[in-house]
């Protein structure tokens, strides 16, 4: 009987089933995502007492704090502050070569750490003695997947691993596997595959170190922070690291820490709020449709209910019938929603990684059953049902005005915010340097021996026609590395010390990224060579033979063309210098006061470029001076033919391995690098785009059903109007007007709400779009067109009907 009822009214039931199913799918997806994001680092039993130190350079205005601190600041933490029970240091070196079982490997998830690591953190150890780990020098703990990759077995205790660390030579050598740990859980804010030992008291001077503190249960955070600040201030000299900016709770790192040097891409509380809001919009629209169409279904079945009451049925009996009828379509909807949720990543190309327990699935399903089954009783509860067969409670389409207004208000707000997100992401992509970003290959963290061979490697790369251009830079795109030093420049007041950031590039950098000058020429001509740069650096080492090195440097300079240093400024540097016209900077003498004065000699400014936007868009562009120092260029860059990607990558790999067989070839595409930086924003954009589409679809379905129902009840009115001379077009416009005015009102309500949401989201970016009026107008017009198209077909069908037939029908 229930199935017959559904088939008889399949239009209403289909719309309701689809709406509930989509809402259920979105609820599952967002619930599992939010639950995971909120669970980061909760598995550590001491999580409430673990904090990470961050520092900030007050001279770099607008830059975020750094997640690590200078190594020299750590040792006093062990003995000078009673509130600190344990200190864990994590050092993440670049440019490492790992040799195990006669094979070479590389890993991005490699750290040096001390013996407190496994005392503070609860990462699961599969093999080894947790209490004694790292009490002896030259020990290493590896993950299960690393053990399988390196040795083909988890039984790796006692095996040897050799590591060569470019920037930490004292730690290179052989290490014995002392433990095998389980692979880090997904909800850890950092992942490690190899942990190499360092001594607690080992002074790794000036090396960037992530530092975690286990504090006493009874502690005063504010007092501890002030004590550490005061100690550092007393014991550091001018120009050395600044005091801490905060002690961040371990559980807050993933959602609230967004520093330039995070160990992995963190989440965002703003993202969670946006995703929850989007999911709530879909749910509310589905719920509104359900309640509206339930009322429509109730009016349709009202005569049957009255007959049942005449035959002795009570309101409770009617409620039971309605409640039971609702369970089957809700069940279909939950089944549909579950299938959609589990295939969501495939359908939407997202990365929500749907993973929900049976218990969570059960209670969410029960909540949906309860909400929508009880909602099916609302028409009965809000309508006075009598046994009078001649009386009908239907009040026309005005009964649904409020719900339709709310639906379209939510839909229009979703459209506006989606357009804003897309425009902002497009702005970000366009501001970053380089066209055809998917064809720009980055080879990061190049070892010294390959930096010295850059010219040879570049020449061999360019012998392949599928490789269009090759250059090099100080660091890879997407990073914001403050490397600021004072300078001297002709015409600039020397009495007030100012600083500029140094960024080293190879001469073809501008050509590869298609960067044009605002003034001057980007032709760098003769630049310093690596042998010359090595001599200049060795002078700075206060070598006993310093005079001899200076003599060699001068001789080398004379023999190699007597080049003059050339500097390029960006627009932000001009602001620091107080120069309005870029042309006024060209030809001025410039001296970058680097720690090795002989390396950056006095030269001249040859060009001014626009702000490079090489880093991320969350902070303002640094005032920057660009020069060519090949010794610093540890990132190689190649631009390839996008139509021959596979061939080009193979050529790059072959030429690399010819010159460096022991160091694996690693690469990334520029667009992938930036997409990883804006991971949260891309996720928000994809999810909100989908939610907006779902909102519009559900609103359209609801309007279609309600307008169809409304027009059925206006058949007599339409027939009378036509009999009195109204044309079909006049009747069409009259009926459409009723719905379009609701959309216009919804638009006026949605605009300020969407404006506030969009403005708040854009505040995360240092460079952002303007919230132009046309974004709002376009969204309103889109909603209006959709509404008109939704009701036009069935309205036109009713308006063109023969009035005799209409009156006969009535």
Automatic annotation (TrEMBL):
<feature type="transmembrane region" description="Helical">
    <location>
        <begin position="687"/>
        <end position="706"/>
    </location>
</feature>
<dbReference type="InterPro" id="IPR003838">
    <property type="entry name" value="ABC3_permease_C"/>
</dbReference>
<feature type="domain" description="ABC3 transporter permease C-terminal">
    <location>
        <begin position="690"/>
        <end position="803"/>
    </location>
</feature>
<dbReference type="Pfam" id="PF12704">
    <property type="entry name" value="MacB_PCD"/>
</dbReference>
<keyword id="KW-0472">Membrane</keyword>
<feature type="domain" description="ABC3 transporter permease C-terminal">
    <location>
        <begin position="278"/>
        <end position="380"/>
    </location>
</feature>
<feature type="transmembrane region" description="Helical">
    <location>
        <begin position="356"/>
        <end position="380"/>
    </location>
</feature>
<feature type="transmembrane region" description="Helical">
    <location>
        <begin position="400"/>
        <end position="421"/>
    </location>
</feature>
<keyword id="KW-0812">Transmembrane</keyword>
<feature type="transmembrane region" description="Helical">
    <location>
        <begin position="322"/>
        <end position="344"/>
    </location>
</feature>
<keyword id="KW-1133">Transmembrane helix</keyword>
<keyword id="KW-1003">Cell membrane</keyword>
<dbReference type="InterPro" id="IPR025857">
    <property type="entry name" value="MacB_PCD"/>
</dbReference>
<dbReference type="InterPro" id="IPR050250">
    <property type="entry name" value="Macrolide_Exporter_MacB"/>
</dbReference>
<protein>
    <submittedName>
        <fullName>FtsX-like permease family protein</fullName>
    </submittedName>
</protein>
<feature type="transmembrane region" description="Helical">
    <location>
        <begin position="272"/>
        <end position="290"/>
    </location>
</feature>
<feature type="transmembrane region" description="Helical">
    <location>
        <begin position="12"/>
        <end position="31"/>
    </location>
</feature>
<dbReference type="GO" id="GO:0005886">
    <property type="term" value="C:plasma membrane"/>
</dbReference>
<dbReference type="GO" id="GO:0022857">
    <property type="term" value="F:transmembrane transporter activity"/>
</dbReference>
<feature type="domain" description="MacB-like periplasmic core">
    <location>
        <begin position="15"/>
        <end position="228"/>
    </location>
</feature>
<feature type="transmembrane region" description="Helical">
    <location>
        <begin position="771"/>
        <end position="793"/>
    </location>
</feature>
<feature type="transmembrane region" description="Helical">
    <location>
        <begin position="739"/>
        <end position="759"/>
    </location>
</feature>
<dbReference type="Pfam" id="PF02687">
    <property type="entry name" value="FtsX"/>
</dbReference>
């Amino acid at each position: 009987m229930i199935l017959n009822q559904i088939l008889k009214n399949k239009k209403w039931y289909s719309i309701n089933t689809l709406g509930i199913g989509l809402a259920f799918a979105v609820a599952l997806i967002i619930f599992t995502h939010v639950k995971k994001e909120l669970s980061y680092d909760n598995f550590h039993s001491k999580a409430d007492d673990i904090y990470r130190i961050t520092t900030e350079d007050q001279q770099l205005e607008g830059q975020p704090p750094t997640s690590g601190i200078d190594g020299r600041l750590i040792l006093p933490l062990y003995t000078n502050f009673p509130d600190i029970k344990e200190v864990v240091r994590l050092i993440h070196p670049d440019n490492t070569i790992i040799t195990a079982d006669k094979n070479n490997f590389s890993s991005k998830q490699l750290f040096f750490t001390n013996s407190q690591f496994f005392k503070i953190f609860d990462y699961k150890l599969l093999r080894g003695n947790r209490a004694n780990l790292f009490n002896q020098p030259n020990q290493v703990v590896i993950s299960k997947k690393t053990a399988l990759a390196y040795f083909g077995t988890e039984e790796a205790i006692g095996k040897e691993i050799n590591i060569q660390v470019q920037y930490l030579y004292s730690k290179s050598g052989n290490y014995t596997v002392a433990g095998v740990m389980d692979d880090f859980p997904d909800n850890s804010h950092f992942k490690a595959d190899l942990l190499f030992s360092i001594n607690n008291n080992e002074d790794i001077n000036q090396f960037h170190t992530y530092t975690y503190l286990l504090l006493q249960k009874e502690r005063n955070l504010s007092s501890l922070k002030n004590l550490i600040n005061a100690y550092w201030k007393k014991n550091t000299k001018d120009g050395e690291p600044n005091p801490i900016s905060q002690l961040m709770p371990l559980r807050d790192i993933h959602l609230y820490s967004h520093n330039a040097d995070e160990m992995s891409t963190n989440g965002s509380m703003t993202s969670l709020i946006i995703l929850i809001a989007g999911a709530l919009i879909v749910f509310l629209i589905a719920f509104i449709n359900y309640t509206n169409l339930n009322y429509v279904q109730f009016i349709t079945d009202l005569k049957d209910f009255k007959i049942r009451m005449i035959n002795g049925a009570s309101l409770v009996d009617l409620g039971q019938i309605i409640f039971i009828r609702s369970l089957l379509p809700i069940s279909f909807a939950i089944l549909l929603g579950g299938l959609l949720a589990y295939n969501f990543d495939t359908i939407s190309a997202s990365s929500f990684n749907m993973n929900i327990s049976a218990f969570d699935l059960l209670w969410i399903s029960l909540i949906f059953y309860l909400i929508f089954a009880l909602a099916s009783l609302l028409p009965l509860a809000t309508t006075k049902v009598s046994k009078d067969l001649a009386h009908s409670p239907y009040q026309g389409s005005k009964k649904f005005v409020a719900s339709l207004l709310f639906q379209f208000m939510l839909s229009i707000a979703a459209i506006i915010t989606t357009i804003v997100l897309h425009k902002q992401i497009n702005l970000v992509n366009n501001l970053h340097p380089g066209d055809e970003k998917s064809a720009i290959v980055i080879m990061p963290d190049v070892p010294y021996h390959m930096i010295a061979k850059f010219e040879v490697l570049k020449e061999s790369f360019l012998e392949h026609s599928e490789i269009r251009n090759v250059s090099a830079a100080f660091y890879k795109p997407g990073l914001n590395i403050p490397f600021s030093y004072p300078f001297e420049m002709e015409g600039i007041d020397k009495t007030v010390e100012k600083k500029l950031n140094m960024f080293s590039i190879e001469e073809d950098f501008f050509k590869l990224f298609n960067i044009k000058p605002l003034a001057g020429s980007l032709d760098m001509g003769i630049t310093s060579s690596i042998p010359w740069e090595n001599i200049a650096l060795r002078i700075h080492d206060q070598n006993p033979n310093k005079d001899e090195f200076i003599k060699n440097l001068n001789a080398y300079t004379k023999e190699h063309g007597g080049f003059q240093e050339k500097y390029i400024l960006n627009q932000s540097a001009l602001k620091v210098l107080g120069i309005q016209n870029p042309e006024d900077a060209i030809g001025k003498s410039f001296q970058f006061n680097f720690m090795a004065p002989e390396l950056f000699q006095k030269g001249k400014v040859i060009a001014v470029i626009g702000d490079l936007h090489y880093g991320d868009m969350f902070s303002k562009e640094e005032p920057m001076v660009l020069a060519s120092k090949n010794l610093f260029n540890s990132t190689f860059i190649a631009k390839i033919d996008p139509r021959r990607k596979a061939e080009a990558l193979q050529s790059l790999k072959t030429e690399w391995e010819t010159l460096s067989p022991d160091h694996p070839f690693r690469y990334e595409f520029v667009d992938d690098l930036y997409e990883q930086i804006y991971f949260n924003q891309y996720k928000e954009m994809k999810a909100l785009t989908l939610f907006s589409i779902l909102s519009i679809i559900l609103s359209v379905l609801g309007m279609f059903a309600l307008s169809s129902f409304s027009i059925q009840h206006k058949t007599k009115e339409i027939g009378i109007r036509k009999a009195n001379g109204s044309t079909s077009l006049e009747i069409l416009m009259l009926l459409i007007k009723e719905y379009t005015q609701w959309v216009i009102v919804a638009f006026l309500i949605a605009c300020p709400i969407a404006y506030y949401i969009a403005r708040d989201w854009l505040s995360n970016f240092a460079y952002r779009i303007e919230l132009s009026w046309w974004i709002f107008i376009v969204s309103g017009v889109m909603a209006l067109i959709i509404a008109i198209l939704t009701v036009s077909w069935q309205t036109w069908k009713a308006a063109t009907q023969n009035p005799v037939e209409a009156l006969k029908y009535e």
